[in-house]
Design brief:
mainly alpha; 2 domains; 17 helices
Length: 478
């Protein structure tokens, strides 16, 4: 069930009506409704994999209880590793088995041994990377004695499967979400209005910007050999905006929807394309995943406490693992490695935490140096996105090589002016609202009601009038 589908438009009001008018007197009934609704939401994708979600939930729920009851550290450790191995085992079979089988066959062919790899003809369960990481963080936090296990199964199940975040995040932490699920929730008009505005902005990003950019990005990437270097630049630009507006648009809709139920989810994006270096970019892009790898991988490996070699090693590990998390393809691993190389000078010089606040905070315009740094950072991110989008390393190399050829200085074969205008308007609004949680959070808030509603209706008009070709959310495949 897509957020931008008629099915969701019907589903959400029904669940909200039951939530606030039927089950509002009982927290247990509210949570039970959220759980049933979340399972129905997931079953609409593929009911065959609902058992996998329930099994993963049961595994981590009982693991948490058993670790708390363990009489010795060895028993506790055994339960912990059992959960970790099974969770990663399922993820490995469904997401990475074919990749390793094909890579092993290719490695054998290099030494003259030719074989046909045995592959699994299975569909990747939607959201498996996200709900697996939900469970892993819960189990790790209990093992490290950071939290106590949740005894109520329904409460824990809602934490794992709450439908706004189920298939594409954000990746929540038990310390943040579980207390909200256990606390009585009452309808808050201001929170609900804020949620509706965030949903509206997320829909605009997805339907107007991402879907329009996707049409041309797909056309150029899928037929790269037919186009000049200048057109390749346009294709790369369009994919850069597609993936940002697609994923951050999903996150805005997810966060806004959660607010309608009185729940605040973790922020996932903070205007990454206004970053002044790659380190800042990664603090602002897919924040819930970046912080997950920081807390559960980078810091346990030693973080930045060791010498230069340890910082370099740990940086490469988390970026390569992050790339591999995105999918079973060498392009994702190379993409992670590229970002590690980009950030390496900052890590070595200890300048990776220079920009902790949003650019030009309290000012209308950035300084010249800030503007140049933003452009350079955007260019590096754009280059890496080419590798991310490509089907294989060879295609990525050819695509980039064409950009640096003489054809870069020719007139592009594809020049959709309307899309560039829409992107420009979008970036202006994002810049104006960059100090807020999302761009239109306070847009026209002190203006008369007529002005405010005119802005909202203008966005709604754009969603219907400029809607691009319907595209599935990119991160559903991860």
């Amino acid at each position: 069930m897509l957020f931008n589908s008629i099915n969701f438009v019907i589903f959400l009001p029904i669940v909200l009506a039951l939530y606030w008018f039927v089950t509002n007197k009982s927290l247990k009934l509210q949570n039970a409704l959220l759980l049933v609704s979340s399972y129905f939401f997931y079953a609409c994708w593929d009911y065959r994999f609902l058992f996998l979600l329930i099994f993963s939930t049961l595994l981590d729920y009982f693991t948490g209880l058993k670790m708390a009851e363990a009489r010795t550290p060895a028993i506790k450790r055994s339960w912990f590793w059992l959960s970790v191995c099974i969770n990663l085992g399922f993820l490995g079979v469904f997401k990475y088995f074919n990749f390793f089988a094909a890579s092993f066959a290719q490695a054998l062919s290099l030494v003259g041994l030719h074989t046909s790899p045995w592959v699994l003809h299975i569909v990747l369960p939607v959201g498996i990377s996200f709900y697996t990481f939900h469970g892993l963080s819960y189990v790790i936090d209990i093992y490290k004695d950071r939290i106590k296990p949740e005894k109520d199964f329904v409460t824990y199940s809602v934490f794992v499967s709450f439908f706004p975040l189920l298939v594409a995040g954000p990746i929540e932490r038990a310390t943040h979400l579980l207390p909200q699920i256990k606390r009585e929730r009452h309808f808050n008009y201001s929170q609900a209005i804020d949620g509706l505005k965030q949903i509206l902005w997320g829909m605009f990003k997805k339907v107007v910007i991402a879907d329009n950019c996707a049409y041309y990005a797909n056309m150029i990437f899928n037929n790269a050999g037919d186009y000049s270097g200048s057109t390749h630049v346009i294709g790369a630009l369009f994919f850069t905006f597609q993936i940002y507006c697609d994923f951050s648009g999903y996150s805005d809709i997810a966060l806004g929807t959660a607010k309608l139920f009185g729940i605040d989810l973790l922020r996932n994006f903070a205007y990454p394309y206004f970053s002044r270096d790659i380190a800042e970019f990664w603090r602002r892009w897919h924040i819930s995943l970046s912080s997950w790898f920081r807390d559960y991988l980078y810091i346990p490996l030693g973080g930045s406490k060791g010498g230069t070699w340890m910082r370099v090693r740990n940086t490469f590990i988390i970026f390569l693992v992050s790339g591999f998390w995105h999918g079973a393809n060498w392009t994702f691993i190379v993409w992670g490695g590229l970002n590690a190389l980009f950030i390496l000078p900052l890590i070595i010089s200890k300048n990776n935490r220079n920009h902790l606040e949003i650019v030009a905070q309290g000012r209308t315009w950035p300084t010249m140096r800030e503007a140049i740094n933003m452009v350079l950072t955007f260019a590096l991110a754009n280059l890496a996105w080419i590798v991310f989008r490509s089907e294989n390393i060879g295609q990525a190399w050819d695509f980039i090589a064409k950009i640096f050829s003489r054809s870069l200085f020719t007139v592009p074969e594809v020049m959709p002016v309307k899309i560039f205008v829409l992107i420009f308007i979008f970036m202006v609004i994002e810049w104006m609202g960059r100090e807020e949680q999302y761009a239109i959070a306070r847009l026209a808030i002190r203006r008369p009601r007529l002005v405010r509603w005119s802005v909202y209706y203008a966005i709604i008009f754009c969603i219907f009038y400029f809607a691009g070709t319907d595209q599935q959310f990119i991160y559903f495949q991860f």
